[in-house]
């Protein structure tokens, strides 16, 4: 018969292994969310997408992963409810990791895009209900999480529609070659500023900056980006387009030509890849919690103490 300390130690080691497998499965299943559009539109190759995902998912994980991990560790089910019998909480979190890892591996094998967050949250709710009953769940937190699942696709669809409508009508279908450059500069500034805001605003308290300072920083970032693109990037595009269009016997200053529209459209693939990179960064910072959150709970509440280096191991596997 094993002692409580032995059981805790075994669960921590097994938890590390299962969290490693789970984080690997998360990377395999969810990487398409970030870079699938860039690969599908042939802006980058599959190999390039994998390299970008590995780099920026990793960066998002190590810089911002702790923020969401704490939610899964203690906000859905209060660990204090297991006071005096922490081993049950540890076993429950371990069971959630196992269930999520098995399901994600099966889903990935059959090419099914599934939600890793829903999987791990369902596992946590399941063990808590079995052990303590339905009253153990923090339903306010659950409703907030479910609301985010509903709001996210609606918001993404609305913004995607508006942005595509703007580009299609005012840039691709009603555009001259020369006007496309200054509009590209402005769009680049807006895009980079908006993407940066997702990182800067969520870390505002951690960085110790006020809301006004944050907004001012985003405005400055947008202006600087627009100027850099206008002064340095656009001249490169002009030289490249001139060579391409002259070889195809098309007047560079003309408009309405499919060749010219193709060159205008070509510039926007760079913004798409940059956007995908930011999505990979945000995904790494958010979904790493699905593996690290339960694992950190196992380590923190196991009676035998702590194990160092766990987050780093999981982060490495996740970025792969």
Helix-strand layout with pairing:
Elements lengths: L3 H37 L5 H29 L11 H24 L6 H17 L6 H34 L6 H22 L3 H4 L3 H37 L10 H30 L1 H13 L8 H10 L1
Helix pairs in contact: 1-2, 1-3, 1-9, 1-10, 1-11, 2-9, 2-10, 2-11, 3-4, 3-10, 6-8, 6-9, 10-11
Short account of what is shown:
This protein is mainly alpha-helical and 320 residues long. The protein contains 11 helices and no strands.
Keywords:
320 residues; mainly alpha; disordered C terminus
Total number of strands: 0
How many angstroms separate the termini?
38 Å
Shape: elongated
Instruction: Please trace the helix and strand order, writing H or E for each element.
Output: HHHHHHHHHHH
**Fraction of helical residues:** over 70%
Largest sheet at a glance? none
Rg computed from alpha carbons, rounded to a whole number of angstroms: 24 Å
Strand content: under 5%
| DSSP summary: helix tally | 11
The assigned structural class equals mainly alpha
Q: Unreliable segments (pLDDT under 50, ≥5 consecutive)?
A: 252-256, 304-320
Query: What is the averaged pLDDT score?
Result: 80
């Amino acid at each position: 018969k094993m002692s409580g300390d032995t059981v805790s130690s075994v669960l921590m080691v097994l938890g590390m292994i299962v969290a490693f497998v789970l984080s690997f499965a998360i990377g395999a299943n969810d990487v398409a969310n970030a870079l699938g559009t860039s690969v599908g539109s042939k802006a980058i190759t599959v190999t390039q997408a994998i390299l970008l995902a590995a780099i920026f998912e990793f960066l998002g994980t190590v810089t911002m992963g702790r923020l969401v991990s704490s939610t899964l560790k203690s906000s859905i089910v209060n660990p204090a409810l297991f006071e005096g019998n922490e081993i049950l909480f540890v076993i429950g979190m371990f069971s959630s990791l196992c269930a999520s890892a098995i399901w994600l591996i099966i889903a990935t094998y059959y090419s099914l895009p599934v939600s890793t967050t829903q999987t791990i949250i369902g596992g946590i709710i399941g063990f808590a209900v079995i052990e303590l009953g339905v009253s153990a769940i923090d339903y306010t937190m659950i409703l907030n999480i479910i609301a985010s699942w509903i709001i996210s696709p609606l918001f993404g669809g609305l913004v995607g529609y508006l942005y595509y409508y703007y580009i299609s009508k005012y840039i691709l279908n009603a555009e001259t070659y020369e006007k496309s450059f200054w509009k590209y500069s402005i769009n680049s500034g807006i895009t980079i500023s908006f993407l940066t805001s997702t990182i800067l605003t969520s870390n505002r308290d951690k960085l110790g900056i006020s809301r006004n300072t944050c907004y001012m920083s985003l405005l400055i970032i947008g202006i600087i980006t627009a100027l850099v693109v206008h002064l340095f990037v656009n001249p490169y595009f002009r030289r490249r387009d001139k060579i391409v269009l002259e070889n195809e016997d098309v007047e560079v200053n003309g408009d309405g030509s499919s060749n010219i529209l193709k060159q205008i459209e070509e510039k926007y693939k760079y913004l798409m890849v940059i956007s995908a990179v930011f999505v990979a960064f945000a995904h790494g910072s958010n979904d790493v919690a699905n593996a690290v959150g339960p694992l950190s709970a196992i380590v923190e509440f196991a009676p035998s103490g702590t194990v160092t280096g766990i987050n780093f191991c999981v982060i490495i596997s996740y970025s792969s």
